Amino acid sequence: MKVRYRIHVSGIVQGVGFRPFVYRIAVRRGLAGHVRNLGDAGVEVEVEGPQEALEDFLRALREEAPPLAEISGIAVEEIPPNGDSHFRILRSAEKKGSGGTIPPDIATCDRCLSDIDDPKSRYHGYWATSCTDCGPRFTVIESLPYDRPRTSMRDFPMCEGCRREYEDPLDRRYHAQTTACPACGPKLSYLEGGREVTGDPIELAAEALKAGKIVAIKGIGGTHLACDATREEVVSELRRRLGRPGQPFALMAPLPLVRGFAEVSPEAEKLLRSPRRPIVVLPKKGGKLAPSVAPGLHTVGFMLPYSGLHHLLFRRIDFPLVMTSANLPGRPMLTENGRILRELVGVADGFLLHNRRIVARCDDSVVRLAAGKPVFLRRSRGWVPEPIPIDLGEEPMLALGAELNVTFALYHRGKAFLSQHIGNVEHLETLEFLRGAIAHLLKITGVQMPKILVCDLHPAFPTAHLAEELGERVIRVQHHVAHVAGLAGEHGLPELVGIAVDGYGYGTDGAA
Question: Could you tell me the CA-to-CA distances from 274 to 82, 220, 270 in Å, in that order?
Answer without folding.
Answer: 44, 17, 6
